[in-house]
Amino acid sequence: AAPRDLAGRHVVVSAGGTREAIDPVRFIGNRSSGLQGYALARTAVARGARVTLVAANVALPDPAGADIAAVTSAEEMRAAVLEAAAGADAVVMAAAVADFRPAGYRGSKIKKTDGAEPEPIRLVKNPDILAELGRERRPGQVVVGFAAETDDVLANGRAKLARKGSDLLVVNQVGEDLTFGRPDNAAVILGADGSRTEVPRGAKEALADAVWDLVAERLPAPPRD
Ligand code: C5P
Prior knowledge:
The chain is an alpha/beta fold. The protein is built from 5 helices and 12 strands. It has helices spanning 35-46, 74-85, 129-136, 153-164, 204-218, and strands at residues 10-16, 20-23, 26-28, 50-56, 67-71, 90-93, 100-102, 123-125, 142-149, 168-173, 184-191, 196-203. The protein has an 8-stranded mixed beta sheet with strand order 5-4-1-6-9-10-11-12, with helices on both faces. A two-stranded antiparallel ribbon has the order 2-3. Strand 2 (20-23) and strand 3 (26-28) form a beta hairpin. Helix 1 (35-46) crosses helix 5 (204-218). Bound molecules: cytidine-5'-monophosphate. Residues 74, 93, 95, 97, 99, 126, 128-130, 145-147 line the site of cytidine-5'-monophosphate (C5P).
């Protein structure tokens, strides 16, 4: 049986990938399936936590026992995550949040015109939710990010951990069918305290449990009543 080490804790998990609308029928998206975030939600429920799962465009069965907020874009995800995080003990940002969105939403479908090249789509930066959580966290709150890297995985991971102000960063190598849509994953979890935990390739549940082990160690002792 799972340890009940998250009993009495409220955790927020984001999952999936945001979609940034171009026009009513098109969007810029990414390859995140939501499997890792859903595994995090399921394992947290099993360990006794109250779980708020903020899911962006995930086509998976709802994990039993989690409260689910469905969102589409990065801006919607930001609003849902910040609202849930206000009272949470830990926030794990497993979602692939689009770094950019189209600068202007076209209210009607973009048409092709004979002989003319299409208009370029200008992009603007999205808010960085993880960085905001790192800056504005409540005392004792544990903030965890994910980093999908293709090159210089560890050096980029350390730099990202510092830049985002997270307590933990789960760094996985992506590309060439290594992670997206697969039931298994492998990662190195970097801690702001200098720790480094290697999680060998295995089920996404196993990586999720490794994340919760590290989160549980970092949570302040619960108030006694
Ligand atoms: O900077 P990068 O996109 O590689 O960072 C990945 C981490 O930051 C993930 O935990 C992701 O959920 C989070 N993120 C975010 N808001 C963004 C971009 C990424 O919270 N706009």
